[in-house]
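Please describe our next protein:
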Amino acid sequence: MILCCGEALIDMIPTGRASGQDAFVAHSGGAVFNTAIALGRLRRKVGLLSGVSNDLFGTQLATALGDSHVAVDYLVRSDRPTTLAFVKLENGHASYAFYDENTAGRMITTDVLPKITPDVGALFFGGISLACEPCADTYAAFLDREGAERAVVVDPNIRPGFAPDEGRYRARLMAMLARADMVKVSDEDLAWIMPDHAGLQAQAAALQACGPAVVLVTRGADGAIGLLPDGDMVEVAAERADVIDTVGAGDTFNAGVMARLDEMGLMTKAALRRLGPEDLKQALSFGAKVAAITVSRAGANPPWLDEL
């Protein structure tokens, strides 16, 4: 099983009304939630570890997970409210206003973390849960506790505005990246993580030198690159798509890469640290393919395996 660790929230998506004013529709979302949903739809064994409310939105999230074959055994349920993210779309790109104080996801602490079973072979971390405290400290502690023998994948999805103390955020994040076997970043994420290096390849190499064996960098319409454990690089082009919006694109890409690696028996710590160019290129290409379907329709709606 791949256990995805991080936020599950409600995206309030604007929709036009006859009056000309926007209304908002509640969609299940969150970067880590989206990755788990995409993995489930690609028929990989997957679960979600997240703080989820008992309120109506939390019930909506749990139901959506089950409908996409994501195990809910690791959800930490509470009576705190659900995080709400109000979305503004401009030319297909999303900006967000988050309402996250005292929520079920944000307030998850180490004393309520579940024990995980031996069938969990890989851990995925990412999203705003790595920036917001106390949950960010909780997920860092969980990585320390469970990551030594399991494959660790991190997509930091940088959100410095969520962290009141940027120094604490950067230090915690760099410690987690150092323990990862594979890291996926956007080109913008990479520039923030490695501000003292110029150029994408130099920044990616500097990140790899911090500890992860494999570094993946997405570049939007310019495709993605991957640095292998030996430092060599592979590159894939973006799939052509009629873009409706980019919500969930990176999350689906993550799922596609991990799904293909898992299918090939390569989602282990040892396998990722000796990954070869053909296997990585195949995984990147599959990630680009599933992401292209997501951007061709509204919202974070990853494809099912039979759609491929």
